[in-house]
Amino acid sequence: MKQKTVRVKNKLGLHARPSALVVKAATKYRSDFFIEKEGTRVNGKSILGVMMLAAECGSVLELIVDGVDEDYLLEEIEGILNQDFGE
Amino acid sequence: MQILFGKRIADGVAVGLARFIEPLIISLPTHSLTEDQVEGELNSLDLALKAVEQDLNVLLEPKLVNQNEREILETHVQILQDPELYGYMTDAIKAKLFPAAKAVNEVFTYAINVFENIENELFRQRAADYKDVRDKLIKKILNDQSDRFADISEDHIPIMKEIDPSQASLLQRKHVRAIIVDSCSPTSHAAIICRALGIGLVSGVENLRNVAQNGECLIVDAEVGKVVVEPENEMLEYYAQRLQVEEMIRQKQLSQKRIPCQTKDGRRILLKANLGVSEELDAIADLGSDGIGLYRTEYLFISKDTLPDEESQLADYRNVLEKMAPNPVTIRTFDLGGDKLSHLISSLEEANPYLGNRGIRFSLSHPDLFKTQLRAILRASAFGKVQIMFPMIIDTQDFLEAKRLYNICKDELYAEGHEYDPDIPLGCMVEIPAAAICSDSLAKECDFLSIGTNDLAQYTLAVDRNGENVARYYIQHHPAVLKLILFTLSNAANHQTPVSLCGEMASIKEYVPLLIGMGITELSVNHAAYYQVKNIVQKCDAKLQNTIKLFTMDSPLVKVEELIYQTLKPYYSGNGR
Inter-chain contact A47–B78, Cβ cutoff 8 Å? Predict the structure, then answer.
């Protein structure tokens, strides 16, 4: 299991498009993936879960990965969260 | 006979029998399941999830939707595939003994409530997606067993309250030619699909439900929003004839479409189309052309209040490339400047904008704007075949500078991990006499050249092509212009660089034999002139080549006109050889 703290950087937050990208990427991997925000933990492979976090710009998120391909999963999700989504 | 009118949504003509299709009334089941029904309800939930996903894929597949709509639909697919949601729904069926439709309703309504209570507007809007998917799922589950379209055939004209995309494509498979609905937005998915599939669609036909009965004869003429109930014989005959003629024209064009464009003696001429506004795209994609020879991208700006960003340009270019694939699209970078962009960027007022900071000059002096466009084109190149062309080039200097910026964009995208075609051909417009005169060195540097005759004539003859009192001097076939074209062609041939001609001249029938005879092997024309030009090309032969070869361009203008309007007339006038 690995854990990493990240901050939402893009202006509009984790809205529909970024959430969709996160979920799309996460479902490719076998490892479990959870996102935690202010004590609320959601399944990172669930579009409902990720969007319900309503993570705005500046929100602090805890990424939790667990499984055989957890390193790759974490790396890809971090990459997505570092984009600015053209905003 | 009664003639009624509604709103034109998608064009098409049909004669058929009225067939009212009543809307599905949804009433959620309230009963509890018995244990042995649980398996069946789980199954029907699975089937509904799969069926709704398939409906969405129908829309996503043929690229009928733009980038925004695509993202919404893809989100809907993700909602259908959401493991958490699925878990909640199956739990409700198994533990609470809810029927599938009720389970869907409960779980989705809970999610919708959560979204509606989020303060951030952007997140709150997502409730709409969940409502949409919920309704589709419930309809699917309850509609499982009843196919309301089972006995509809090509003889029918369905009349419905509203229509969704999957119904439109289902009716098309049943060869229905026209549909009437109570209401439908022209921008809805169903409307887009009807237009793409060639089904006539009329909405809001006043009084139709009072006048027409099931099984009565109807004529739908969607182009004018007309519906005729129980038509008289004369009118029926007129429409029967019209349908026959349309069918004949369609067959003829289809046969034209399949033949590659070549001269009588077998010289292949690439015949492409010019694309200005995006509304032309469908018509162009349907021509069976060799691609788009000139995509005027500045139109992206002209209708907008803001500068389009990389993503929105990417979506536009990608759409064009995908529609035209596998044929190439030549994108001309923005030909802006002068007064064309004054509402967006405060540029210096120029006394003579045609000789000012326009075309590539403007782009090179606004490198950020230019790079955004180049990046968008590069990223779009992963989805089709593209060539890039720079406007208003005078010599290799500006071309090489543009190429340098292009290479920087390429490196950036590579570092960012984007996909693109690494071998995009780069070329330039030959529309300034200087470029034609320097065409030897240009042909050496460029992967292709494209002659823009409108500006070439204007600059060569020093005449404003929009100026009324000098209109008589704007002569595209002036020997000076023709000599520059010939000079460019011969220089390009030395370097084996392909040349196309994309100016207005290519679309004017009188000029086509002249250009082919001069040795042009690629034309890009307005889509309306496409088949006419193709027809003329097919009449051109070796004798024509000889005629032009023997003609000296040092002749005075009257001699050139004699050549075009007399000697070459048989090639473009109706009953030629």
Answer: yes
**Strand, helix or coil at B190?**
helix
Check whether residue B435 and residue B420 sit in a common domain.
no
- Residue B495 in domain: yes
Q: What share of chain A is helix, strand, coil (3-state, %, to 5)?
A: 35, 25, 40
Q: Which domain holds residue B490?
A: 429-501
- A46-59 residue pLDDT tens: 999 998 888 888 89
The residue ranges of chain B whose pLDDT is under 70 are 24-25, 61-69, 144-147, 165-166, 187-189, 192, 196, 254, 278-279, 301-306, 337-349, 574-577
Instruction: Using CB atoms within 10 Å of the CB of residue B105, give its burial: 0 to 12 exposed, 13 to 18 middle, 19+ buried.
Output: buried
- Lookup: tokens for B426: 């780069």
SS3 B386: strand
DSSP secondary structure string, B493-514?
A: HHTT--EEE-SGGGGSGGGHHH
Question: Model pTM greater than 0.80?
Answer: no
Give the strand pairing for A2-7 and A60-66: antiparallel
**DSSP string spanning B213-279?**
-TT-EEEEEGGGTEEEES--HHHHHHHHHHHHHHHHHHHHHHHHHHS--B-TT--B-EEEEEE-SGG
**H-helix or E-strand spanning residue B293:** strand B292-296
Rounded Cα distance, B443 and B440, in Å: 5
Q: How far is CA B426 from CA A8, B377, B406, B442, in A?
A: 39, 12, 10, 11
Q: What is the DSSP letter of B65?
A: S
Interface list for A 26-85 with B (CB within 8 A): 27, 42-43, 45-49, 51-52, 54, 56
C-beta neighbour count of B393 within 10 angstroms: 26
Spatial distance between the Cα atoms of B343 and B360, rounded to a whole number of angstroms? 20
**Distance between CA atoms of B147 and B151, rounded to whole angstroms?**
9
* CA B51 from centroid of its chain's CA atoms: 29
CB interface of A with B, residues 17-36, below 8 Å: 17, 20, 23-24, 27
Residues B295 and B420 in one domain: yes
| Domain end point (choices B143, B172, B189) | B143
Sheet holding A60-66: strands in order across? A2-7, A60-66, A32-37, A40-43
Calculate helix-pair angle for B396-416, B367-380, nearest 10 degrees: 60
Number of domains chain B contains: 4
> B313: which chain A residues are within 8 Å (Cβ-Cβ)?
none
Q: Tell me: the pLDDT tens digits for B8-39?
A: 988 889 999 999 988 766 778 888 999 899 99
* Residue B518 domain flag: no
CA-CA distance, B333 to B519, in Å (whole number)? 27
Please indicate whether, in this complex, the C-beta atoms of B126 and A51 are within 8 angstroms of each other.
yes
Tokens of B517: 């005879």
User: B17 forms bridges with which residues in the sheet?
Assistant: B156, B217
Helical axes A70-81 vs A16-26, angle rounded to 10°: 160
How far apart are alpha carbons B295 and B35 in whole angstroms? Answer: 63
Fold assignment, A2-81: Histidine-containing Protein; Chain: A; (3.30.1340)
- Token output for A41: 């933990």
Q: Which residue numbers of B are catalytic?
A: 189, 502
User: Quick one: B434 and B348 in the same domain?
Assistant: no
pLDDT for B104 equals: 95
Question: CB pairs below 8 Å between A and B: how many?
Answer: 54
Which one-letter DSSP state was computed for residue B28? -
